Amino acid sequence: MILRTEGLAKTFEVGFRRRRVQAVRDLTLSVQEGEIFGFVGPNGAGKTTTIKMLMGLIFPSGGRAFIFDAPIPSTASKARIGYLPENPAYYEFLTGREALRFFARLARVPGADAKRRCDELLELVGLTPAADRQIRKYSKGMQQRLGIAQALVADPAFVILDEPMSGLDPIGRKEVRDLILELKRRGKTVFFSTHILPDVESLCDRVGIIMRGQLRDVGRLGELLSPRVKTVELSAMVPEGARGALARGRVLAEEGERVSVAFDDEASADGAVRAVLAAGGRLVALTPHRETLEDFFMRRLQEGEARPEATPRRLAAP
Ligand SMILES: Nc1ncnc2c1ncn2[C@@H]1O[C@H](COP(=O)(O)OP(=O)(O)OP(=O)(O)O)[C@@H](O)[C@H]1O
């Protein structure tokens, strides 16, 4: 077990009247060695607050957490963690290479290794051609990639990335996804937060879903998502007089003889396929749709809204 939290909680006191906001409540989860764990939640759910607690940047109001079996904050375990903050800030007059060398010095990477390590990381994150350009001339995506290189500079065993894909275009997101997979291949454990659901589906071994400060679900996606087929989409070339075969479905598109229809159950779709073929039609595609992470997320969000105890608790000032 690389990370373990037990009932971790954080309450902020806000404003003149010290209104108390429970940003994270009773968070219990664990991350195992070698896995990619996605910490997923909408804006304001408590992801950054959790990560800041893990990194020792803010102190928990309650509960405990252990990284490499050491209670947080632990200087010894921090030396083995790479961290990308949500909004990395740099000395922008430095070049990417200079900044990375600076971070390597801060992380006490021995001088002899530092140059080689920095060159390797610049290559890994695709910044070699821009390495000698000032950071203020970097795009958001390049700054994000430099942030990831910075997180890896001490060759950490555990990497915590706060919203690594935020603000990136689809190509940049794909590059960061590939990078995270590469980290896994190199034996690292990765914990990253995000609200971009397709990224989670393509990357994570396990996910934790946090909403309004509470961990709502944790597990493998295959365990969380319903295996039930939600709809079956049938596309077929159907002669004009044989459209009755599709009568039980919802028409999605129609162009000449080509018709796409959705069925809510597999039996109806099977029946329609047989009827289309019997009528001399031709099947083009039959696609079952199961619950996606987005469907699951929206379902849990709606369930949470229906449950008063899951609404954010804003405690009155004492
Ligand atoms: N320093 C702070 N003082 C007061 N409230 C805070 C503070 N930091 C965070 N909060 C509140 O705690 C809650 C959780 O915020 P947090 O930044 O952890 O969410 P998040 O899931 O990271 O969201 P985002 O995806 O928007 O970054 C929010 O209601 C936020 O307003």
UniProtKB/TrEMBL annotation:
GO molecular function, one term: ATP binding
Annotated keywords: ATP-binding, Nucleotide-binding, Transport
PROSITE patterns registered for this protein in UniProt: ABC_TRANSPORTER_1, ABC_TRANSPORTER_2
Domain ABC transporter: start-end pairs: 3-237
Source organism superkingdom: Bacteria
SUPFAM superfamilies found in the cross-reference section: P-loop containing nucleoside triphosphate hydrolases
Family statement drawn from the similarity comment of this UniProt entry: Belongs to the ABC transporter superfamily.
PANTHER family: ABC TRANSPORTER, ATP-BINDING PROTEIN
Protein name: ABC transporter ATP-binding protein
Source organism: Anaeromyxobacter diazotrophicus
